[in-house]
Fold this protein.
Amino acid sequence: MQQEEFSHILEKAFREVAAEHCQCYTEGAARSWAEVGASYLGFALCGLPSTELRRVQYLTKEQYGPVILNCKWYDSLKAICLDRKESLQTLLPGRGGTLCRCSVTEDLFLEMLDFCREG
């Protein structure tokens, strides 16, 4: 079974949960913020350099502004992204444009959301 890139999973969840709360991402914003989240996890688990993480984060914030994300939405996002399990096997960005197979836990997922919100 082929795994899906985490950024695709998170992008769909960002869009879905924002829409449930009458919010809408501009074209490209959910995708870009999902890449920030995936990059954070790649930094934590796959050796993605901090310089790359910060580059993605700063470009996203400059182009799209802050992420549309309320901490009250965390449980909904976690349920969607982790498929109501304690962890998710997924693909994350690593060094040199590689994709790494990793397990994202609930705690690390919530930490990633905090990173995006603090953006």
